[in-house]
UniProtKB/TrEMBL annotation:
Protein's recorded name: Glycosidase
Taxonomy, superkingdom: Bacteria
Molecular function via GO: hydrolase activity, hydrolyzing O-glycosyl compounds
Membrane-traversing stretches: none
Length: 587
């Protein structure tokens, strides 16, 4: 056994409280290096004849990536505290792995050898809103979704969808337009909307806020927004807004005061200013988002800034009953601010959803004291590389997904925000070379994966577009111009997801990944539900043999509702199967 590859630490994704009684423990070993792993565990205060007493249970191999195997077990310590180690087997070799190193025999003279989970405190358990597990999100860029009140149009508004969008163009999307189209979202099966910023700002994207307490007049007023939220709630749709707290806009009143009064401004410490007077060329002499001079970075450590932003966060929940905040550029804001943010918003609405925009490993924000979830871009990039761009084959994709799965605790994975596209990425149909069969396969994977999936407006009817701003086209409302084939595909996937708990939040296991045929198969399990998903990501038919006996089992094709009669089946190019496996006696 390669000792250098064996890894565990008693925190984060490797040891965590799943609920108030249950600990989840993981171990990492070199890929294909270890045959079996057992957990040695016990209460640190249970001794007999001067020897520490422990139990031994087998761990399950929960998956692998390109370099490592992962092992898993769930245990319920009777006194909510635990000391533990690992017994590893490879052929005739056996090792005991503890916090103090490796041993040939399990030490019993002192518990200090072992890893320690000191106590399972209820307040330390990661808790995210349970409703998120059942939510299918729909991201709306308000300026481009629907124009319901032309009287609100900004100057020089263009006819709806008349030309491709630019960074400065306006088409007049507003709240009235969204209200008018809510039944469309209900028809699709959506029960959550994520809005990009709606607050007063000069741009079409609104990430350059002027006033965090005011709706941008091109969208409507507060009364209209309140009516929008109430209409959503009446149809069972949750509402999440975008909080741009890393930076303000250039015309934000405190920043304008600094521009006017320089070092004498009472707001000078609201920002990160290196010298006066302020200048924007060649790069700003004040911190910004990227080097964008119109987006000065806020000093969230400053007490007045902190209070102002916390007042913003609580105001929109208290006055308008929103259900979530998506936090823009969340990784560049200090952790202490987010801890206080969580406490403030959860005090008003305990089940509000806090979603951070973080594109990389986000474990430091997901320990239960800051965010409920992050935008799962590693999932996004893995799916795009495999299905759309064909940059990787089945095995590498499987390794990517299993790495994503093992990177966070299970209760974090259950509410992860899994997206395929957004206002920051090219349209998925464009990335698929406008081959809609690939788009349908991507949606099949997304909507059968655990977590909280999000559909970017228009992807479900075949909108195309390159990188921003082209990915922000006007929504197409003429049915004859929509790809209704993609729409009905997504609609059916959402309906199946709502029907089967295994699809929503079941345990995920990769069953097969074959580079030669470029297909993957995986299993979703939840209680008594088992669903096998097979995806043929190739332009040739796939002949596949079901890897278990059909005897005493009833296997139902969920897409056609037909029973599977043969052990070997043929899947069309870019086709898929979703197979519900049940004991025959249960049918």
């Amino acid at each position: 056994m390669l000792k250098e590859a064996i890894y565990h630490r008693p925190k984060d994704a490797f040891a965590y409280a799943y609920d108030e009684r249950t600990l989840h423990i993981r171990l990492r070993t070199k890929k294909d290096d270890v045959d079996a792993v057992y957990l040695l565990f016990g209460d640190p205060y249970v001794w007999k004849d001067d020897a520490w007493q422990f139990d031994k249970q087998p761990m399950q191999k929960s998956g692998c990536d390109a370099l490592f195997d992962y092992w898993f077990i769930a245990v319920q310590p009777p006194y909510r505290r635990l000391r533990y180690g690992f017994e590893l087997h490879a052929g005739e070799d056996m090792l005991i792995y503890t916090e103090k190193g490796f041993y040939k025999k399990a030490p019993t003279d002192d518990t200090a050898y072992y890893f320690c989970f000191p106590f399972l405190n209820r307040i330390d358990v990661f808790h995210a809103p349970s409703w998120v597990k059942d939510t299918v999100w729909y991201q709306i860029f308000p300026e481009r979704f629907a124009n319901g009140n032309p009287h609100l149009n900004p100057p020089n508004t263009l006819p709806w969808g008349s030309v491709d969008p630019t960074t400065t163009s306006f088409f007049g999307g507003d709240f009235e337009g969204i209200i008018a189209q809510l039944d469309y979202l209900v028809e699709l099966g959506i029960n959550g909307i994520y809005f990009t910023p709606i607050f007063k700002a000069p741009s079409n994207h609104k990430y350059d806020t002027i006033d965090y307490f005011e709706i941008d007049p091109q969208f409507g007023d507060k009364q209209t927004f309140k009516r929008l939220v109430e209409a959503c709630h009446a149809k069972g749709i949750r509402v999440m807004l975008d909080a741009v707290f890393n930076h303000s806009g250039y015309y934000f009143a405190p920043f304008q005061d600094v521009l006017k009064n320089g070092a004498k401004s009472r707001y000078k410490d609201w920002f990160h200013i290196r010298e006066f007077p302020l200048q924007t060329e060649p790069i700003p002499n004040y911190d910004t988002f990227a080097f964008v001079p119109e987006m000065p970075k806020l000093n969230t450590e400053h007490p007045e800034v902190k209070q102002y932003l916390l007042d913003v966060a609580t105001y929109w929940i208290r006055e308008f009953d929103i259900d979530g905040w998506r936090l823009d550029v969340a990784n560049e804001v200090d952790h202490q601010f987010w801890r206080e943010f969580r406490q403030a918003v959860k005090a008003i609405k305990p089940d509000v959803y806090i979603l951070g925009e973080i594109w990389h490993d986000a474990m430091p924000w997901l320990r239960g004291d800051q965010f409920d979830a992050v935008m799962n871009y590693p999932f996004t990039n893995g799916a795009l590389n495999y299905f759309a761009k064909e940059n990787v084959k089945a095995n590498e994709f499987a390794y990517t997904i299993m790495n994503v799965w093992h990177n966070y605790p299970q209760n974090v994975n259950e509410v992860a925000f899994n997206l395929l596209g957004s206002h920051d990425t090219p349209r998925i149909l464009t990335q698929c070379g406008e081959r809609k069969e690939k788009v349908k396969l991507m949606f099949t994977f997304q909507l059968s994966f655990s977590g909280s999936p999000c559909i970017y407006y228009g992807d479900e009817i075949g909108l195309t577009g390159g990188q921003d701003p082209l990915c922000r086209k006007c929504m197409v409302w003429e049915k004859e111009k929509q790809d209704r084939d993609i729409f009905t595909h997504v609609q059916k996937l959402i309906a199946l997801r709502k029907q089967y708990r295994a699809l929503r939040f079941g345990e995920f296991h990769m069953l097969e990944a074959n580079d030669k045929t470029n297909h993957i198969a995986y299993v979703k399990t939840y209680d008594d539900e088992t669903i096998v998903c097979l995806l043929n990501n190739a332009d040739t038919s796939l002949t596949w043999t079901v890897p278990f006996s059909l005897k005493d089992k009833t296997v139902i094709n969920l897409w056609t509702n037909e029973c599977l009669a043969e052990q070997t089946i043929t899947i069309e190019p870019y086709g898929f199967r979703m197979l519900l496996v049940q004991p025959t006696s249960a049918v």
